[in-house]
Amino acid sequence: MDNTRLKQIMDYDWFKNNKPWQKEFTAMKRNGAKVEIQSLSSRGITFISDTYLPEKIKRQDFLD
After folding, report:
1. What are φ and ψ of residue 12, in 5° steps?
2. Mean of all residue pLDDT scores within the chain
3. Is 25 exposed, middle or buried (0-12, 13-18, 19+ CB in 10 A)?
4. How much is the pLDDT for 46?
5. CA–CA distance from 6 to each of 27, 44, 48 (Å)?
6. In the predicted model, is pLDDT for residue 45 greater than 60?
7. By three-state DSSP, how is residue 27 classified?
8. Which of 4, 10, 22, 50 could cross-link to 46 by cystine, CB 3.0-4.6 Å?
9. Per-residue pLDDT for 1 more than 60?
10. Cβ pair 1, 34 in contact under 8 A
11. Predicted pLDDT at 31
């Protein structure tokens, strides 16, 4: 995961004020981990399909 993308995820409303998540994201940045899908799916089996992707589509936040 690139640092720009990690910063975007860290700023999501549901992660922004969550200290445990912020700590994990800081560790990811420090370690250069590529774990975006794992970190998102750990919020629940349907989080990506029910929350993450619909919000990205709504905001039209697509890869270039």
Report:
1. -60, 140
2. 80
3. buried
4. 85
5. 11, 20, 16
6. yes
7. helix
8. 50
9. no
10. yes
11. 73
What does the block give as tokens for 44? 């629940």
pLDDT tens column, 9-36 = 899 988 889 888 898 888 878 876 665 6
How many CB atoms within 10 Å of residue 6? 19
CA-only gyration radius of the chain, Å: 12
Which residue, chain included where needed, has tokens 């981990």?
33
Task: Pull the structure tokens for residue 18.
Answer: 């969550």
Beta strands in 1-64 (DSSP E): none
Q: Which two tokens stand for residue 25?
A: 């994201």
Separation CA 39–CA 6 (nearest Å)? 11
